[in-house]
Specification:
CATH architecture: 2-Layer Sandwich
Mean pLDDT: 93
Order of helices and strands: HHHHEEEHHHEHEH
Largest sheet: 5 strands, antiparallel
Low-confidence stretches: none
CATH topology: BirA Bifunctional Protein, domain 2
Strand order of the largest sheet: 1-2-3-5-4
Distance between the termini: 39 Å
Structural class: alpha+beta
Helix content: 40-55%
CATH class: Alpha Beta
Length: 230
């Protein structure tokens, strides 16, 4: 049976969102390991098998794809924020080989007590990457529009993520035919589903099918920034 989560996993996520402290987490760490970490790593391995057929450059060991549940709390106190040492969701990020330490385009999902989010795109590009991607889009905006307009992709991942600027970026004309796309600071697609979807054996298909539909978009976004391979 394909990897998926149990109702106990959602119960744990509800608990950690209410009691985000070590006193609550430490005695329940075995529950986290059993109900969240273990099935998450198994699910990632199964998704890797699917990615190998359409996006092999994004396949990495599951433990490198799964994101840590521990938060960086160093600046919480200085920002007058409560110290919350744990994330209230579990997440996975498939970067392209060679872009693991930057913010190239990739595949993502997270599960919280309230939602399952499945996404694909480029979200925090470096300034150099952002410039290269915008130049690529200006030359090939018709191709990007066609990718974003794909009916199957729009039905499966209807939410477009842009974070648009209010004025044209430096070096680009406001009359460019690609200006609506160039205003974006990120480019991505996503869908938000009820968290209960994660307790179904269909979870693998829910994620892998959407990643496959988004793969051409990710390939387009990575084209101007992907490392050259000999």
């Amino acid at each position: 049976m394909p990897a998926h989560f149990t109702p106990e996993a959602l119960k744990f996520l509800r608990g950690i969102s209410r009691h985000n402290d070590r006193e609550w987490f430490e005695p329940r760490k075995p529950i986290y390991e059993r109900e969240l970490k273990a099935p998450m790593l198994a699910l990632i391995a199964e998704i890797n098998d699917s990615l190998a057929t359409f996006a092999p450059g994004h396949v990495r060991p599951p433990h490198k794809i799964m994101m840590r549940i521990y938060r960086d709390t160093r600046f919480d106190e200085s920002r007058n924020q409560p110290i919350r040492p744990y994330k209230s969701q579990i997440a996975a990020w498939w970067a392209l080989a060679g872009l693991e330490k930057t913010s190239g385009g990739g595949f993502y999902f997270h599960l919280s007590a309230k939602e399952l989010v499945i996404a694909a795109g480029i979200y925090m590009p470096t300034p150099q990457q952002l410039l290269a991607i915008r130049r690529h889009i200006e030359l090939h905006h018709a191709e990007l529009r066609a990718l974003l307009a794909n009916r199957k992709l729009r039905a499966a991942m209807p939410d477009l993520e842009c974070r648009a600027l209010t004025r044209p970026p430096r070096g680009f004309s406001p009359t460019s035919p690609a200006i609506d796309l160039l205003l974006c600071r990120q480019w991505g697609v996503s869908v938000t589903l009820p968290a209960e979807h994660a307790t179904s054996p269909a979870l693998l298909k829910e994620i892998a099918t959407r990643f496959a539909l988004a793969a051409p978009l990710i390939q387009f976004l990575n084209a101007p920034i992907a490392p050259a391979h000999s």
